[in-house]
Amino acid sequence: MTHDTTTRSATPPPAVPRIAAAGCLTPSRVRQWAKKQYPLYILLALLLFAGLTSDAFFTVRNLQNLVVQVAVIGIVMLAQFLIVLTGGIDISVGAVVALAGVLCAGLFGGDNTLLAALVAITVGVAIGAFNGYLVAFRGLEAFIVTLGMLALARGLVYAYTEGQPITPHSPTFRVVATTATAQIPVLGIIWIGVALAVAFLTRRTVFGRRVYALGSSKQAAYASGVPVKTTMVAAYVIAGALVGLAGFLLTARVGAATPTAGNSYEIDSIAAVVIGGASLAGGRGRVLGAVIGTLIFGVISNLLVLLNVSTFLQDAFRGALIIFAVVLTTVRFRRDRATRARS
User: Fold this and answer.
1) How confident is the model at residue 341 (pLDDT cuts 50, 70, 90)?
2) What does the pLDDT look like over 248-305, one tens digit per residue?
3) Contact between residue 87 and residue 282 where contact means Cβ atoms under 8 Å apart
4) 80 to each of 2, 66, 150, 237, 294, how far by Cα in Å?
């Protein structure tokens, strides 16, 4: 019997104690919860500032544009969130988005939208499985593996496209990115649906508990019977599928696959996860916080455009926000550790 086939620690807790605990809503617990919601407070402050400084921000058209802009990077962020939970990091997500995009638009001429989506997701799954295998079974560092994949995928993109955009032939290719339901863009609905699925996967399934256990301590997880290697590969495969889907959706939104697609997605996704309260050491974080982190970056980018701020200054604002997020997260985790030590 091997550790990869044992699941002693993955047994779900009984429902009754969870319900009982949920019912004990005391003022102290509310205060404790409120102290940890700093990403939400940042987002609310940004929305207030945006409303005061730009009359165009809260128009229906601009809010729809905002949702469309953050939906694709939001899905990439969810992929990054899964990897960060395991204690890893994936800096190849932007390049894989570009590779999935050009292949789904270029293979078979982009004549079939459904086939194009399957091609993009398959590309993401294959790359995710390869990265996961090297990290889990060969013991390589996730940063080094994904750094190499970033260069490989981006090189393949330029070799395949020769630096030129590829336009799919299917007339329905852009439907998913240009339609709305009840004035809500379909891209936004897809993003929220994927976010709910990832939240359920990480918080309500045995697999999710194993992922958190990996990030907390691989040695402890292995000793308690968690299939460490297969769980890690599965996390990379799921993340790869999400990145591939994002590549297809980005191509559909733009109307063409460009070799520069996905640039800076790795930085933005990592920053969104961190500002949402996740720990880069792994084992800590919530999907809601990561979603709020994505919205924070989206609101800032959108507002800076409305205020006609220079593109170079926009990059500076994003960099400052990343530094602020890392500092804030570090202070919070140190404070939590000190609180636990005193108790």
Assistant:
1) low
2) 999 999 999 999 999 989 988 998 998 888 888 888 899 999 999 999 989 998 999 9
3) yes
4) 29, 21, 14, 12, 12
In the predicted model, what is the mean pLDDT of residues 133-153? 96
Tell me: the pLDDT tens digits for 162-192? 989 999 988 888 898 889 998 999 999 999 9
Q: What whole-number distance in Å separates Cα of residue 21 and Cα of residue 43?
A: 29
Q: Where exactly are the structural domains of the chain?
A: 45-342
**pLDDT tens-digit series, residues 190-219:** 999 999 999 999 999 999 999 999 999 989
Burial of 287 (0-12, 13-18, 19+ CB in 10 A): buried
- The residue type of 76 is V
pLDDT at 110 over 90: no
The 8 Å CB, 24+ separation contacts for 26-34 are: none
Are the C-beta atoms of residues 267 and 325 closer than 8 Å to each other?
Answer: no
How far apart CA 142 and CA 280 sit, in angstroms, is 12
Q: How far apart are CA 256 and CA 107, in angstroms?
A: 13
Strands (E), 102-149: none
- What CATH architecture does domain 45-342 belong to? Orthogonal Bundle (1.10)
Do 152 and 257 touch, CB atoms closer than 8 A? no
Do residues 297 and 69 make contact, with C-beta atoms less than 8 angstroms apart?
no
CA 233/CA 237 separation, integer angstroms: 6
Helix (H, G, I), strand (E, B) or coil at 82: helix
Q: CA-to-CA distance for 72 and 186, rounded, in angstroms?
A: 12
